[in-house]
Fold this sequence. Notes:
Number of helices: 0
Helix content: under 10%
Amino acid sequence: QVQLVESGGGLVQAGGSLRLSCAASGLIFNSYVMGWFRQLPEKEREFVAGIRWSDAGTYYADSVKGRFTISRDNTKSTVYLQINSLKPEDTAVYYCAVERTYSGNWNPMDYWGKGTLLTVSS
């Protein structure tokens, strides 16, 4: 059974940095990808960053390039999302998700975590 558990959210000031973590268990697929998504208040969930587990190839939404960095630690089965120069508009629930075989669409994903709330104060 695949489980994804996000952590690292909280209340931070604008301009600061934060690293979110997503610990995965039960993943046995060879070609899966993991993604970070966020849902802003009263908005639909959106893709922000993704990574291929096999070779750490990365993908980013245009809106976050340059500020967000996704990475993974194979030994810990954990994917990270580093966010720099935080802005109030980054306030959202951040989710990680897994797609068993990368389709290029980041939708739909096969497994989801429950999310972690990040609030950025101005």
